[in-house]
Amino acid sequence: xxxxxxxxxxxxxxxxxxxxxxxxxxxxxxxxxxxxxxxxxxxxxxxxxxxxxxxxxxxxxxxxxxxxxxxxxxxxxxxxxxxxxxxxxxxxxxxxxxxxxxxxxxxxxxxxxxxxxxxxxxxxxxxxxxxxxx
Amino acid sequence: xxxxxxxxxxxxxxxxxxxxxxxxxxxxxxxxxxxxxxxxxxxxxxxxxxxxxxxxxxxxxxxxxxxxxxxxxxxxxxxxxxxxxxxxxxxxxxxxxxxxxxxxxxxxxxxxxxxxxxxxxxxxxxxxxxxxxx
Amino acid sequence: xxxxxxxxxxxxxxxxxxxxxxxxxxxxxxxxxxxxxxxxxxxxxxxxxxxxxxxxxxxxxxxxxxxxxxxxxxxxxxxxxxxxxxxxxxxxxxxxxxxxxxxxxxxxxxxxxxxxxxxxxxxxxxxxxxxxxx
Amino acid sequence: xxxxxxxxxxxxxxxxxxxxxxxxxxxxxxxxxxxxxxxxxxxxxxxxxxxxxxxxxxxxxxxxxxxxxxxxxxxxxxxxxxxxxxxxxxxxxxxxxxxxxxxxxxxxxxxxxxxxxxxxxxxxxxxxxxxxxx
Lengths: 134, 134, 134, 134
Fold this sequence. Notes:
The structure is a homotetramer of 134-residue chains.
Chain A: E1 2-9, H1 26-39, H2 45-50, E2 53-54, E3 57-64, E4 73-80, E5 87-95, E6 101-110, E7 112-113, E8 118-119, H3 124-130
Antiparallel strand pairs in A: 1-4, 2-7, 3-6, 4-5, 5-6, 7-8
């Protein structure tokens, strides 16, 4: 399976008055982490969209294990457990600077051909880049 | 069970370049909807915090059934299916102006005593306000 | 000149760990307020975009006079002092529930024809709707 | 004067349906850039808050010169032109990957002693770290 890792620094904008990362902001961390995980494979989500494929999110799940805090340099570990087909599932584990697991998440995305609006298979270059992992 | 309904107008800030509501922004809609659902019971989450109880989110799940779009006046139907104890679970159904179900979600929150940091039971006024529904 | 008023409830998502509204979130309040001010004239920014005109922001200024706080029902007073031409300037005054002025702002926007990418004049229906105020 | 530079990758979350960075999101870029500019001086805004000083924003100004776009690795150049006293002013210039200046901004912040709520002077370690630049 494919694994990668990304660092994200918590912004003040992302905290709330509880002094924690607002629970809704983890979705953006997941987005950053999965885009970087693709980039580490030599793939660009931006180019994918330019080539006529979008990847809308179908489902998202988060479990908040411990508060995330301002200015921490988080480590987001991303795993794609199953070889993607017409859908792709990313799993995330987020660790704080004390290496404590603070959040786990899972996002399922579709591949959609923008011209037709119809679901399609993972693009060839992604299939190739991922082929060594499954 | 307790049911309520809230209207939310989609902001431009909440869209992304796909032309949809960014998937991470539904969490804020859920927050607005559950706070308004409490307000309709005569309860204020702001006062709850002032009284020394916070309600951090433990888990959040979203399923995206159809794109949400700019400027639509969404209807968020909130349900609390089970009588809350030391945790409370809110379920959401979001409908667009065409009355199409575009999103469903579920959030589990804890009651935490801010002084001790320890989970506690639902406050008395909330228990009383909800008592008629279970 | 044209004046209007909009109410906005502060979301938890919009607070930061200082316990205030994060300074960057006022821009979204301004957006909501100016879109509502147009709606009160019978104009829809969504329809404007559908008709091929976008209104990107050219300049934005905010002065933060007092902290904005969670759950307050803010009143945003919007003024368009000068009759718009190829640009439009919105001024904002934001009051909290104690009727204290907490924020003032100003946003300058252009009218851009999306087909050509070229600045254009205010659309006719907007000119007509605003004609009584200047 | 003190100058520094920070790189920020544009997130999908930060775009809007115009296909640009939403105008309100530049404030968070400014925040990141000024915090990193302090970090490059050996200063931590997080520690500053822990030491009992907050830096609320008093004024913010943005000029949008060209659209910012998804996935671009922006360069934010930060300048503190005048030696800070009880206030500090940060100026920003944001360049896209084509080295085009897309945004300029200015933020004025106060130093507030959290215990008293009263404005105070820049903390000693900051004064020392900045002393070589003025």
